[in-house]
Design brief:
This protein has one domain. By secondary structure, it is mainly α.
């Protein structure tokens, strides 16, 4: 086992049993080829960083804005 995998396993051991199972299911899905790892482009990474920063500042869409988006898509 590599050092990196050992570090990851040690961190997983500190998690709740439910979260450990979630990590295990994800690992098995990747190993079984059910889902591959997603590699984000620089643009996608920047978009996520922007969204996380907005959330950290408490900048969320208003209820009115959400209703308008849902209506636009027939929801």
């Amino acid at each position: 086992m590599t050092d990196l995998l050992e570090q990851a396993i040690e961190r997983v051991r500190t998690l709740s049993p439910e979260t450990q199972d979630e990590v295990a299911r994800t690992m098995l899905a990747v190993l079984d080829g059910e889902q591959g790892l997603v590699v984000l482009s620089p643009e996608e990474k920047a978009s996520f960083a922007k969204s996380l920063a907005q959330a950290a500042r408490g900048e969320f869409a208003s209820d009115e804005r959400i209703r308008a988006i849902w209506a636009k898509h027939g929801l």
